[in-house]
Design goal:
Layout lengths: L5 H9 L3 H8 L15 H8 L1 H24 L4 H16 L12 H11 L1 H18 L2 H19 L3 H17 L1 H9 L8
Helix pairs in contact: 1-4, 1-5, 2-4, 3-4, 4-5, 4-6, 5-6, 5-9, 6-7, 6-9, 7-8, 8-9
């Protein structure tokens, strides 16, 4: 029963907006108000440079990874792992500490998938990197990696709880990118390094 406390813990940890915290500490503009108005690493990169973006990316990733590592350390059943992963992801999307205005969830989802298994997380990361290399679009890379994430989890891990949790996260991540999808279709999406 105690292990179920991992789920609210994961949500609260996920609710710590790395982009907002890093921007405040480095005296950068609020990423919810400037740039793309998305509190994520890509917008922090635009507003504050590489150092701020890397710190934001790692913060977002670790808040997805840490609850899963704690759950595994407590020998929590797979249902708890799945629920904690989704909770951390939802915390990032809808953070209670920041007016429920969160990011798109790419790095946090990666952290969750690394927590499930380093193989699935690495497969998603490699997919993102390959698509980014050829397309120069962060959003397209995230969309394709998200679409393939449930396939990777199903292939290497299986099990309804983890696959279902990954499908839910991927669907929400893709939905959060709906404006990016529209810009990609119009040929207006910004590219990495431009």
């Amino acid at each position: 029963m105690l292990q179920w406390f991992l789920v609210p813990f994961a949500y609260l940890l996920g609710s710590l907006s790395s982009a907002v915290i890093v921007s405040r500490l480095l005296q950068l503009p609020d990423p919810r108000e400037e740039g793309s108005k998305n509190p994520g690493a890509t917008n922090v990169l635009r507003l504050g440079g590489k150092k701020a973006a890397v710190i934001t990316l790692l913060g977002d990733m670790f808040k997805g990874l840490i609850p899963l590592l704690v759950a595994k350390g407590l020998d929590a059943p797979v249902e708890i792992l799945a629920a904690a992963g989704v909770a951390a992801f939802l915390g990032h999307l809808y953070p209670v500490f920041f007016g429920f205005r969160g990011g798109k969830g790419v790095a946090t989802a990666l952290g969750v998938l690394l927590g499930y298994s380093w193989v699935t997380g690495t497969a998603v990361l490699v997919t993102w990197l390959v698509v980014a290399y050829f397309s120069r679009m962060s959003s397209l890379s995230a969309l394709i990696a998200a679409a393939l994430a449930p396939v990777y989890v199903g292939w290497w891990l299986g099990g309804l709880p983890l696959v279902s949790a990954t499908v839910l996260m991927s669907a929400l991540l893709i939905w959060r990118h709906r404006e990016n999808i529209a810009r990609i279709r119009r040929g207006e999406e910004s590219r990495i390094g431009r």
